[in-house]
Design a protein that fits this description.
This protein is α+β, with helices and mostly antiparallel strands. The protein has a single domain, classed as secretion proteins EscU (name from scop, 3-Layer(aba) Sandwich). Helix content is 41%, strand content 14%. The protein is built from four helices and two strands. A two-stranded antiparallel sheet has the order 1-2. The chain is globular and about 50 Å long. The model has no long low-confidence stretch (mean pLDDT 88). Pfam families: Bac_export_2. Belongs to the type III secretion exporter family. Required for formation of the rod structure in the basal body of the flagellar apparatus. Together with FliI and FliH, may constitute the export apparatus of flagellin. Keywords: Bacterial flagellum protein export, Protein transport, Transport.
Amino acid sequence: MSDKKEKQAIGLSYDGFNAPKVIARGFDELAEEIIAVAKEHGVLVHEDPLLSDSLAKLNVGDEIPRELYIIIAEIIAFAYLLDGKFPRQWEEG
């Protein structure tokens, strides 16, 4: 039995209104493909084994659970800032 942990990737989509949903989920080789496609399309890839383990329990189409809202919101906000996107209120100041 191997102690090597399988690679996993979970892709989320957020429409700005509803809770983020799982849009892709894969392990090992499929995880590598999901990560490669995300990077090719300029999607932020965030590596967090504990978060990944929690999200891996979900199926494609599932919304993230409430207990993950804050961490996912922080990651989405960080991705927006990296993209140069800011809340409208910041620009109106």
